[in-house]
Design goal:
With 199 residues, the chain is of the alpha+beta class. The chain has a single domain, classed as Alpha-Beta Complex (Adenine-n6-DNA-methyltransferase TaqI, Chain A, domain 2), CATH 3.90.220. Helix content is 33%, strand content 16%. The chain contains four helices and eight strands; from the N terminus they run βββββββαααβα. α1 crosses α4.
Amino acid sequence: MSKMMSLKDLKIDILSGQIMSRVTIKPGSDEEIIESRKVIIPKAVLSDGTIDVSVLPTENLKTPADKKRLTQINDIVIKLSSPYDAAIIDEQSEDCLVPSFCAIIKSSDDVDVNYLFAFLNSNFCKEQLKVNVAGSIMTVLSVGKVASVQMPVPEKKEQVEIGMSYRKTQKKLSIIREIAALEAKRNDVIFNEMVKDYE
């Protein structure tokens, strides 16, 4: 039987993102570039639970990136504004800097990471997040608000089963998105070629 616990009580680490204005070099500045990093902007966090690495900008930094704010494989990045989508980090999106519009979530030993990933993308979780900002001037969630979310915690075996099932479904959605993007490009080529015939 499941029990309800907050993410905080489950010892799940939730880290705020980097305030980018403090570390980035403004265009035209003669400040020394210490390093350059890909940044996981909110629009790169897709509803199918993946990171669209093709839209990640590279920022020049005037100070070394805080290692706590760099992604590692199996980290979860969540948008702190609606629709609160969460994506899991893989080889393509690791070692990227997370900005303050998102947060990094690291699972604990008691919670299967794929189960946590599935929960964060559930309507049950998102409704709690919406309630946390309702009536507030701030439309961006704080890390504390995310930590206060209540999650059902079944036995580890059931967590693994639910998490793996969700990952398989999300993988299918990701493939469908990729196919749709290719079909859209093909469609554009067809019509561009047709237009040339009239020029």
